[in-house]
From TrEMBL, chain A:
Coiled coil: 25-52, 81-115
InterPro entries, per database record: PFD_beta-like, PFDN4, Prefoldin
Name of the featured protein: Prefoldin subunit 4
Protein's job: Binds specifically to cytosolic chaperonin (c-CPN) and transfers target proteins to it. Binds to nascent polypeptide chain and promotes folding in an environment in which there are many competing pathways for nonnative proteins.
Family listed: Belongs to the prefoldin subunit beta family.
Subunit (UniProt): Heterohexamer of two PFD-alpha type and four PFD-beta type subunits.
From TrEMBL, chain B:
The organism of origin for this protein: Eruca vesicaria subsp. sativa
Role summary: Binds specifically to cytosolic chaperonin (c-CPN) and transfers target proteins to it. Binds to nascent polypeptide chain and promotes folding in an environment in which there are many competing pathways for nonnative proteins.
Family of the protein in this entry: Belongs to the prefoldin subunit alpha family.
Subunit description: Heterohexamer of two PFD-alpha type and four PFD-beta type subunits.
Record's keyword terms, sorted: Chaperone
KW Chaperone (keyword) present: yes
GO biological process: protein folding; response to cold
Protein's name in the database: Prefoldin subunit 3
One GO CC term on file: prefoldin complex
Length: 129, 196
């Protein structure tokens, strides 16, 4: 993810505008990495909640231990079911939001890439290693 | 965390932000070198050093960010517990809970219908609050933590912009230097061939 405004051979003019484009690209790239992690995390959480929900259907106990904070509270099964369902919905929603942000970032980065490559040709490298 | 998607270069005109000096953008390497009195090597060394300093600050900020990011779910957990106790309030039902006494050792607690919780305030102080007060306090803490995280993220963004500017500057000075050397090398040999 190194951006190097290399002006090879003949001195290539780097304007403040170019610099700002590079900055923006770098910032987007950083955010993209964060997003990828966050999305991974949200997906894992979703899977775990899904598993918990399935496990709950199989369980024949009336009371299950549900972790609230640091303690395992004894909570009736149906209440846990609704709570897990709620948590899952919230996670899915935030996951969708993250995916959307990622998409728009990727688009904007592609635009910036076009602009920067058009100006600097192969003197600049905007690809991941 | 959604603020980062705005494409406008936030605060790029500042000369510093929270003690972090801004990296100056160099319009033209040649004028910069002649004006500052640096030769290419010392200019490179200067900017490399700057870059290192930025990296040190980045590490610090990242550590702070991690701390805050860990703190927020903690507060949310507390809020959840207080919320659970609050919903039980007045129902007369007691809450049965398994809790960890020591690592790997659990015991069972019966929490009677209660109106208050004790919050650990730090510095060896614990205070009893009513559930409403506790919720308010925790929410306040949560808001504060989120606000400082936002500021921190903005700081990091500013810092990273400066890092990028410095990296580009280094690359440009380096290229300028290489270019100069090449010109210098070509000229004497050209003269030599002209002489012969």
């Amino acid at each position: 993810m190194q951006q190097q405004g290399k002006s090879s051979g003949s001195e290539m003019e780097v304007t403040w505008e170019d610099q700002q484009n590079i900055n923006t690209f770098s910032r987007f790239n950083n955010r993209l990495h964060e997003l990828v992690d966050e999305i991974k995390f949200a997906k894992e959480k979703c899977d775990n909640l899904e598993d918990a929900g399935n496990e709950l259907i199989l369980a024949d106990e009336e009371m299950v231990r549900f972790q609230i904070g640091e303690v395992f509270a004894h909570v009736p099964k149906d209440e846990v079911e609704t709570r897990i369902e709620e948590m899952k919905e919230a996670t899915i929603k935030s996951l969708e939001k993250l995916e959307q942000e990622k998409e728009s970032l990727v688009l904007q980065m592609a635009e910036l890439k076009k602009v920067l490559y058009a100006k600097f040709k192969d003197s600049i490298n905007l690809e991941e290693d | 965390m959604a603020s980062s998607s705005s494409p406008s270069g936030s605060g790029s005109d500042l000369s510093e932000r929270r003690g972090i000096p801004a990296a100056k953008f160099i319009q033209d390497v040649e004028t910069y070198l002649s004006q500052s009195g640096f030769d290419s090597n010392s200019a490179l060394a200067f900017h490399q050093e700057r870059l290192q300093q930025y990296k040190v600050v980045e590490m610090k900020l990242l550590a702070q960010q991690r701390d805050l990011q860990a703190k927020i779910p903690d507060i949310e957990k507390c809020l959840e517990v207080v919320g659970t106790l609050e919903t039980r309030k007045g129902t007369g039902e007691s809450l049965l809970a398994d809790f960890e006494v020591s690592e790997g050792i659990y015991s069972r607690a019966c929490i009677e219908d209660t109106d208050s919780v004790c919050l650990w305030l730090g510095a060896n102080v614990m205070l009893e609050y009513s559930c409403e007060e506790a919720t308010a306090l925790l929410k306040n803490n949560l808001e504060n933590a989120k606000a400082s995280l936002e500021v921190l993220v903005a700081d990091l963004q500013f810092l990273r912009d400066q890092v990028t500017v410095t990296q580009v500057t280094i690359a440009r000075i380096y290229n300028y230097d290489v270019h100069q050397r090449r010109v210098k090398q070509v000229t004497p040999s050209a003269i030599a061939t002209a002489d012969a």
